[in-house]
Amino acid sequence: IMARVDSLPEGAKEVLQNGSLIEREFGYELIKQVTGLPEQELLTHLSVLKDAELLYERGIYPQSTYIFKHALTQEVVHDSILTKRKKKLHEVIGNAIEQLYKENIGEYYEVLAEHFIESENFKKAAEHSKLAGKKAQKAASFKDAIEYARKAIYCLERLPETDTIQKKIIDARTRLAGYYLSLDHYVDAKEAVAPIADLALELNYQKRLPIIYTVMGTFSQWVEEDYSQAFRYLDQAFKISEKVNDDT
């Protein structure tokens, strides 16, 4: 496959590489935005790729979509790109998707999370991962909600340790714990909040303490069967929740 790719004109090869980082299927408007090429030049490169039977076209220009003829071709081209360039291109693709599809951005949270994780733009990746998780929760797809909540935590933990970021980590971990509780995964829920219980107290982050204590209490009740400890945690959760509601 790479022999065929390497024999392409340089411009067509670059378009193919850009496309391989988007998905197996990508739209004309997106590849145009990502490459920044003039219309006629881009169309020429796409024609070369179609003639080489590496891509095929579906739909009518300019609403056309280009698809890698074989999934293996996309994979091989993707893997041939140098890591440094790949990172830069993922950032370009993520920004292009944000700009092109801002009217229906909710359809792209998952894709954006992946592109910004790959580009190591952890701030944007954390935000899109959070939104993808909430979207999955609304669809009652808790497995996906958990996956994206974990990605949000991964990204946030790679940002500078300011109070604001620490609070976002607390938010993300309590959200993850909530998803686990929805599936009665009490041990996983407790593991999600264990690293932030002391931190929430230290930062006096009252609004997340009720869910933290609820998780701890539920774990004590159903896993440890320590009912007095469970009562203490749940009582704390209730009292702090009332106080937070009164303050707001």
From TrEMBL:
InterPro entries, per database record: TPR-like_helical_dom_sf (IPR011990)
Gene Ontology CC: one annotated term: cytoplasm
Coiled-coil intervals, chain numbering: none
Keyword line: ATP-binding, Nucleotide-binding
UniProt KW Ion transport keyword: no
Statement: the UniProt record of this protein carries the keyword Nucleotide-binding: yes
GO MF term (any one): ATP binding
SUPFAM superfamilies reported in the protein's UniProt record: TPR-like
PANTHER family: GUANYLATE CYCLASE DOMAIN-CONTAINING PROTEIN (PTHR16305:SF28), TESTICULAR SOLUBLE ADENYLYL CYCLASE (PTHR16305)
Name under which the protein is recorded: MalT-like TPR region domain-containing protein
